Amino acid sequence: MGNLVEIRDLNVSFSTARGSVRALRDVSFDVPRGRIVGIVGESGSGKSTVIWAMTQLLAENGRVEGGEIRFEDRDILKYDADSLRAFRGAQASIVFQDPMTSQIPVKSYLQQMLDIAYRNRDQSRAEKTEHAIAMMRRVGIPDPEQRIRQFPHQFSGGMRQRTGIAMALLMHPQLLIADEPTTALDVTMEAQVIHLLRELQREFQTTMMVVSHNLGLVAELCDEIVVMYAGEVVERGDIGTVFASPAHPYTRALIDCDPARVLERSRYLPTIPGELPDLRRPPDGCVFVARCPHALARCHSERPRDHAAGEGQSVRCHLFDPTAPQATGMSLPHGQTAATPNRAVESVDAPVLISVRDLHVSYQASGGPRALLPGQKRPSIDVLVDVSLDLRRGETLGLVGESGSGKTTLGRSILGLVPAKSGSVRFEGRELTALGEHAFRPLRQNMAMMFQDPIGSLSPRQTVRSLILEPFDVHRPDAGDRDALAERLADMVNLPRELLSRYPHQLSGGQARRVGVARALALEPQLIIADEPTAGLDVSVQGDVLNLMRALQIERGLTYLIISHNLPVVRHISDRLAIMYLGRIIEQGDCEAIFHHPAHPYTEALVNGIPRPDPTQRRQLVSIEGDVPSVARRPAGCEFHARCRYATDLCRAESPAERPLSDGRTVRCHYPLID
Amino acid sequence: MWSYFCKRLGLSVVIVLCALLALFLLLHLIPGDPVKIALGTRATPEAIARYAEKMHVHEPIYYQFWIYFTQVLSGDLGADVFSNRSVTTIVLEALPSTLILAAVSLFWAALIGIPLGCLSAVRPNSWFDRLTGVLSVATIAIPSFLVSIWSLLVFAVMLKWLPVIGAGDPGDFWDQVSHLILPAFAVGLGWVGYLARMVRASMLEVMNENYIRAARAFGLRERTIVFRYALKVAILPTITLIGIGFSGLLSGTVFAEIIFTRPGVGKLIYDMVMNRNFPVVQGAVLVTTAVYVLITLCADLVVAWLDPRVRDSL
Description:
The structure holds two protein chains of two kinds.
Chain A: E1 3-16, E2 19-32, E3 36-40, H1 47-54, E4 62-71, E5 74-75, H2 81-87, E6 92-95, H3 109-116, H4 125-138, H5 144-147, H6 157-169, E7 175-179, H7 187-204, E8 207-212, H8 215-221, E9 224-229, E10 232-238, H9 239-244, H10 249-257, H11 297-301, E11 306-308, E12 314-316, E13 352-364, E14 380-392, E15 396-400, H12 407-414, E16 422-427, E17 430-431, H13 437-440, E18 447-450, H14 464-475, H15 482-492, H16 509-521, E19 527-531, H17 539-556, E20 559-564, H18 567-573, E21 576-581, E22 584-590, H19 591-596, H20 601-609, H21 649-653, E23 659-660, E24 666-667
Parallel strand pairs in A: 3-8, 3-9, 6-7, 7-8, 15-20, 15-21, 18-19, 19-20
Antiparallel strand pairs in A: 1-2, 1-4, 4-5, 9-10, 10-12, 11-12, 13-14, 13-16, 16-17, 21-22, 22-24, 23-24
Helix pairs in contact in A: 4-6, 6-7, 14-15, 14-16, 16-17
Chain B: H1 2-29, H2 34-39, H3 45-55, H4 61-73, H5 87-122, H6 127-141, H7 144-158, H8 173-207, H9 210-217, H10 222-252, H11 254-259, H12 265-275, H13 278-306, H14 308-313
Helix pairs in contact in B: 1-13, 5-6, 5-8, 5-10, 5-13, 6-8, 7-8, 8-10, 10-13, 12-13
């Protein structure tokens, strides 16, 4: 078969205002024909730079300094403009990360696909159209004849990504590059897309490169893996070998950090201490030396070469140098493992802090010109329906759901940021929904919000110091020594004090998240509502933030409401879970019980939807089909029935009431999977 | 799309009605006798009495508005104080000349400005981009009356290539065209720079979008990417701007009209303000407002037609 792509000693650098960043250094690996190669790494690892260098689409300040990228034995880097254009899209094509931004909004899919097919000069327009429709049908778009004439904004996220795959495969390329193909998607969509990609790869005999930070995705989809760190390939090999016996200390740490790896709940997640080296001056020795628990003296001064580790496995680490006397790599134990499980408070008997009963929230739709006439009511869209939950003091409740499930709205309505239509929200027994803004304000000191986007939620024109003191400006302007306050808060969240004078754009994601934690904790609230606290963070940093939140919870008896779509993360930090679907809580109860024995078919689908970072446990079927319906057009009966494989006529006709299960859980299903 | 159109049309009607009310109230809100304001200071007592009778000034104000409103609806904008000619006729006589001048000015400005901006954005910071940038700022900065005077001086007086003043013989098409060239040049020049800057800025933004990178990754031709992908998105804010600009030119051509002694709405309003011929001013402003609203509506509809997101959002 041979190799379709051979990358040899690829060097890429980016010139920035603060010097040249050497983003890729001596990257070499092969992509054998007909195989799926996963390129894994955290942000800053250079994994995306590899594919942009391959397609010669590097950002303008990027430059290939040396090396070769051979595609069918021709160096792509030496292509002229015409052969490059013939290569792109036809021989190698890309599935992009975010179908929302990578598809032009003003052209219909048919127009976009005809534009890609311009090269097929011998085909008529009708033939091209037919071919495009066939491809849309192949990736699972219903009614492709009609839908192909629609525009990207008329498609759901999952459908858009399917269409992105159809566009990439339109010219039957030999190489398909997928850049974080599921990162922008919900869990159930992610599983569907993984399945689709694997199926299509088999059918079209395509060679694939998958770039991802998600070990689960790579384990589920790929045959081979390339692990990158700080612009270098640190390990590569067969997927089974690497996951079973990771050789490089970084690979091991990365696999350990993945919360989806551990099935049992451990309250503290392993992390990789330290930070990425400064790539303007890469270290002389090993790139990972500063964070490596097994570093030897020579690791600091001498650059390691690639050594064989297992069968078809190569690792760039001195520990595996067969000529060195201390070659002990093979027998090294795994890196830092999880600390002992620790359940802080038995919260079952703790007093209720927040109690939500039958909460109903709806938005007004615009409703067209007829709505302007007098006497016409504008249609309202129900975002939250009959939501009831209790949050006990000191516990962590995980609020889980896909986009559009209303989880963020619920968090915001507890804080009084969204008006309730009916129902009640009580904080320590005090009704909140009837309070005006003026009466609510002092109460906000007791509840704080951590916003989703760690950097975007901080004002870019304020220093960290003034950002973390802002809650005092609002609620306690006479809070005393402000320098001391700022330093105390920075220390509390392990934020180095010298960062206090920086601005948000100068912070890393993890640091910005710490600022968010400090802001939330400034007034010592009792309740913290955290909206996607780990979104956009690397796995090695994500554990750090969660551990910090956990430590602060034990120290201060905080109560957390964690809103997230990331089930593995939620599982590790929550005492109880509430699963939301289309604005209803469809199941709630003890976290472990739900994960072990989901009662609602949707919960089951979500739990099974998580790709596990274990290539030996690949799923053979997708447990849930279809898309989340729009809240504007709620299905009749049980809202989940169209996607539920157990649905009966009763489900289609009648909405199930909330019913208790024997273990104290509640579920909204006519036929729960357990009693 | 249909509901969007109805909504926008309804809104336009509301805006024109508001303008109508404001124009009516203006006459009554200015301190002094509305009749004297309307007729000017030199009116004879008989004329004032006759006009007062006609305007129903002794009736309650809402009745007066009703009369005015029904008159306007039937196409009667009142009469010129001096000549007693119908204001409707006067304004409609002046309007085409202004519309043509504004349209031709913007047309040539767009024809040059949009490609200039586009090409600058494709090669940012090249010598071409820098030159276009300097020239654009220069054309924006030079006041149009200066351009009018200088072009008149150079091309009409010194070189004698083009006629000096007037709008040309109404029956002779080419004569009219030759009379249009200099004013259109003067009015449009600033817009060349303005549109070039505008298109360049929005093109630069769009060229950085992910879907442009995706289009490249799919191997599309650079020509297709620039003109059929990027420009199709980048042009949208420019269309809105041209719509607003066109409406603004209805009175903004006034300098060119004065200097080249062309008939037109701008010049009409200017002359009538100087003469304190209030009914004509009122009628001209009302018609300009209506045209303004109509053109902005058209621009929005064009944007909605080009951008499916806008089409569906309303």
